[in-house]
Design goal:
Pfam families: BPD_transp_1. Its main location: membrane. It is found in: Cell membrane. Keywords: Cell membrane, Membrane, Transmembrane, Transmembrane helix, Transport. The chain contains 14 helices and no strands. By secondary structure, it is mainly alpha-helical. The chain has two domains: 53 residues, no CATH class; 225 residues, Orthogonal Bundle (MetI-like fold). The radius of gyration is 24 Å and the shape is globular.
Length: 289
């Protein structure tokens, strides 16, 4: 098919505009990465570093020698692993129950879930609930308020609805109850959906900031995002607490950039392994054949 002159001009213009947008989007990431590996003395001598003459791990060594930073990484790791597991367990089991037509009260429960999507209780009721449960200043308070999502339950229910009910009936004939059928038959078939929603939950827990700031008063329980925010505000670096005195502190800007890189790397490493399940897990069950 012959491409007209107008189409060629449009394609060139489109590529040019998209290239500019991509460059504007990627440049801050590139700059953060470059500054974090820049030799401290070189960074102090230059106002803008686009490609350092000397690469250095000084900022990373200083951060990883700080007890507060290591502790915050451990807190974020705990929230991500335990929170994602609990969220997937609650969301998938609730969605499976709602997909079973013999489940009594499923329509009423489904309406309540839809109501939570349309109307949120707000910050104060959530805070009062956490306070009455005695979970203030506990990591479980952050997990509790993010345990599930009504929209994710609806999407996962649609996935379970697409699985033939004959599989569960065959398992029942073989002596399986509903829980056994769910664990041994439904969950193995749900791996694309589990991987997709697991990634959603993992990213949300790793990036926990507001809920942690609201419910955690003890600085030793702060996740990496809260500590990073304090580092960005505090130029002195006192939020890192005790650091090895033998390590010379690098400029605060390189420390901040290194902390940002460490905060985003785990998600970037996990995403490629789940990418093949991502689109399939989100879309499956959303349309009917």
């Amino acid at each position: 098919m012959k491409i007209s002159f107008g189409d060629r001009v449009f394609n060139i213009f489109n590529i040019f505009i998209l290239g500019i947008i991509a460059a504007v989007t990627l440049f801050p990431i590139y700059y953060v990465f470059v500054v974090s590996f820049t030799e401290p003395t070189e960074y102090l001598q230059k106002n803008l570093v686009l490609f350092p003459e000397k690469w250095s791990l000084a900022s990373y060594k200083y951060l990883l020698s700080a007890d507060a930073f290591i502790r915050s990484l451990g807190v974020s790791t705990f929230l991500t692993i335990v929170g994602t597991f609990c969220s997937l367990l609650i969301t998938s089991s609730l969605a499976y129950a709602l997909s079973r037509k013999k489940f009594k009260g499923r329509k009423a429960l489904l309406l309540l879930i839809l109501f939570t999507i349309l109307f949120s209780p707000g910050i104060i009721p959530n805070y009062l609930l956490v306070k009455e449960l005695g979970l203030l200043n506990s990591l479980w308070s952050v997990i509790l308020v993010s345990l599930s999502n009504g929209w994710f339950v609806i999407l996962m229910k649609g996935f379970y609805d697409s699985i033939p009910n004959s599989l569960v009936e065959a398992a029942t004939i073989d002596g399986c109850n509903d829980i056994t059928a769910w664990v041994k038959i439904i969950l193995p078939l749900s791996l694309p959906s589990i991987a997709a929603f697991g990634l959603f939950f993992a990213v949300a827990y790793w990036n926990q900031y507001f809920n942690a700031l609201l419910y955690l008063n003890d600085a030793s329980k702060w996740p990496i995002q809260v500590l990073l925010q304090n580092m960005l505000i505090d130029a002195s670096g006192s939020s890192l607490g005790d650091v090895d005195p033998l390590i010379k502190p690098p400029p605060s800007e390189t420390l901040k950039m290194a902390a940002v890189v460490i905060a985003i790397v785990p998600i970037l490493l996990v995403y490629p392994f789940l990418q093949k399940h991502f689109a399939k897990g989100v879309m499956i069950g959303s349309i009917k054949e």
